Amino acid sequence: MGRIITAEEIVLKHIPSQDSFVAARKKTMEECGRLVKEGKIVGAKIYGSVAGLGLENDSRKPSVRSDLDILLVYRDVDALEQLHDLFTSIAKETYVYAEVAITDEYGAINGEHLLTPFLLRCIRRSPTEGNVVGDDPSWIIQPQSQQPQDVYKEYLKEKLESLRRNCVSSIELTRLKALQRSLEVPVNVGRITLDAYEEIFAISRDTDDGKLATIRDFRNYFHDQPFMMEFGNLTSAENEYNVVLGKTIKGQVSLADYNNYLAYLGKRCIPDAISFTKQLKNHFESCLEGNYRCVERSTKFTGKEK
After folding, report:
1. CB within 8 A of 218, min separation 6: which ones?
2. CA–CA separation, 39 vs 245, rounded Å?
3. Pairwise CA distance, residues 154 & 116, whole Å
4. What is this structure's pTM?
5. Which residues is 43 bridged to in the sheet?
6. Could you tell me which of 237, 140, 226, 228 has the C-alpha nearest to residue 189?
7. Is the torsion defined by CA of 267, 273, 278, 280 positive or negative?
8. Cα-flanking dihedrals φ and ψ of residue 47, to 5°?
9. Ordered strands of the 98-104 beta sheet
10. How big is the chain by its Cα radius of gyration, in Å?
11. How does pLDDT run across 151-207, given as a tens digit for each residue?
12. d(C-alpha 63, C-alpha 183), whole Å
């Protein structure tokens, strides 16, 4: 999905181009490769939209709002400060910001980390060509020992708490992060949900877990659920924001109007994201109790229905 670009970034023209993402990936792989040779990290893998760069058959391509998603397993704690310096310098040089998932080698091997098995599965599916140095960390990391239904319930609980907490913050950047997370809900929560339902209720879905495929599959499977209203609101708002952002970058929308629009978007989208997530959590719990025919429904769902 992507970051919320601030008015200050637009004024300073700190907007990444496709070449910026190429440069950010190149420097990340080079420096992480050096840390692998020094024995400080075990491996690193870039995933998400940046991982699709240069691949003809991959629909994922970064936009000006994209960040650089990377998974790391480290061996030497000194690597943490070096990685901080690396990602700080990349942000200054390219305006591309890293979103880092990281654990130490012991935690990776023993399943003592915060990555859900659903996110881990998503990262494992991400293309490896040009995106991995050292050992692929997504295969070093062992899934958590909890039952998948417990992991998914905890994921939704933490998502709700995070949205509520950031929503009431008076810190502008925290509020913008809440807006970002709200706009990401249809794809990020949608993807995790489809993976969870596939594992827990044996639904069948397409192997493509890109943005468009995730939105399509989620709509196909949950089309008759009341929380699809909020889902639709959020996907429409995300598309609308991309248009407004593009016009602001071109100077067709004033910075004052852009800031007012972000405030309006937050008031509109954060409550929808909270409501959607809460209803989805209730739906899942109902499925576990046998009040919803998840398994029967799954036999009819292929991920390719119109």
Report:
1. 186, 190, 193, 194, 231
2. 43
3. 10
4. 0.89
5. 73, 134
6. 228
7. positive
8. -135, -175
9. 98-104, 68-74, 41-47, 132-134
10. 20
11. 999 999 999 999 999 888 877 888 899 999 999 999 999 999 999 999 998 888 777
12. 15
